Amino acid sequence: MPRFHFSPRAPERTGDDRPAPSLWRYVWRMSGWHQVAACLMAVSVAALGIAPIELQRRIVDDAITQENYQLLTILASIYLAIIIVHGLIKLALRMYEGWLSESAIRYNRQHLSRLHADNQTGDEDEGNGRAVSIIGSEIEKLGGFVGDGLSQPVVNSGMLIFGLGYMISVEPVIGVIGLVALIPQVALVPVIQKRINALIEDRVNKMRSVSDELSELSPGAENRDRLTTINRGIDDIFDNRMRLFFLKFGMKALINFLNALAPICVLFVGGYLVLEGATSVGIIVAFISGFDRMSSPMRELLSYYRVAAQAAVQHKLIARWMH
Fold first, then answer.
1. With respect to CATH, is domain 15-322 assigned 1.20.1560.10?
2. pLDDT, tens digit, for every residue of 28-47?
3. Least packed by Cβ within 10 Å: which of 53, 163, 225, 286?
4. Can you give the three-state secondary structure of the chain, one letter per residue?
């Protein structure tokens, strides 16, 4: 297994103790122009991910229907080549994103550990539990956003744009069905995510408080009241998580239902057009495959929206702690 010893922008980051003013400035500070390279790779992944839709249509309409064995072989070979190239570029992109994320996490942990050590008075443990929580787990969520903070939405939005653009250009009526299916999801997510963000911030604050209380435990009877406070905090964290699960999984269930409606509409409307002689079976096959391919990037985009919102909350809280 290779070892990655170098960091994306270590020389430029060293010495700057001020927190970045926003999440996106933080991402740029940690990775810089590497984000441009990652986004270019992401565009290639998106384009190659949609290319098989047209190949499926041509295989059905031009090769199978016409019984053209030579064309079938050529198209199948091109299909296989695209799948291999797409997989290799996607693997390289994931590794690149992972390297950027882990480099940011490593730098942040080293940097915040130094800041915390420099600010210790030597005669008290106040705030140690909070520092452990931030440097141990919170920074991992924030630093993990650096790697795919820009490239992943480029991949998924690119697949949606390329896919819908292709469908509308080939068969506008069916393409519009896919566009309409996306509208409720785009409108719904920000409303629910706003409530999820509030729960995330509340949970992080409660976790920090519990960590502080745990770090201040000492032998003696006075721990009884402190343990009561800790247990109450743990109960509050449990309630917070259950409310968050209800919102998160409820939103996913609704989105999955809306995604499942699109193929049914394609089969109904497309089947009618085939019976009327207005379109071909190959287009219907390709479009069903296309909607299936686009449901995944739509889910990824919605998941990304949640992760970005959580990273923004995390960044705000860590920046406040640094101040």
1. yes
2. 888 888 999 999 999 999 88
3. 225
4. CCCCCCCCCHHHHCCCCCCCCCHHHHHHHHHCCHHHHHHHHHHHHHHHHHHHHHHHHHHHHHHHCCCCHHHHHHHHHHHHHHHHHHHHHHHHHHHHHHHHHHHHHHHHHHHHHHHHHHCCCCCCCCCHHHHHHHHHHHHHHHHHHHHHCCHHHHHHHHHHHHHHHHHHHHCHHHHHHHHHHHHHHHHHHHHHHHHHHHHHHHHHHHHHHHHHHHHCCCCCCCHHHHHHHHHHHHHHHHHHHHHHHHHHHHHHHHHHHHHHHHHHHHHHHHHHHHHCCCCCHHHHHHHHHHHHHHHHHHHHHHHHHHHHHHHHHHHHHHHHHHC
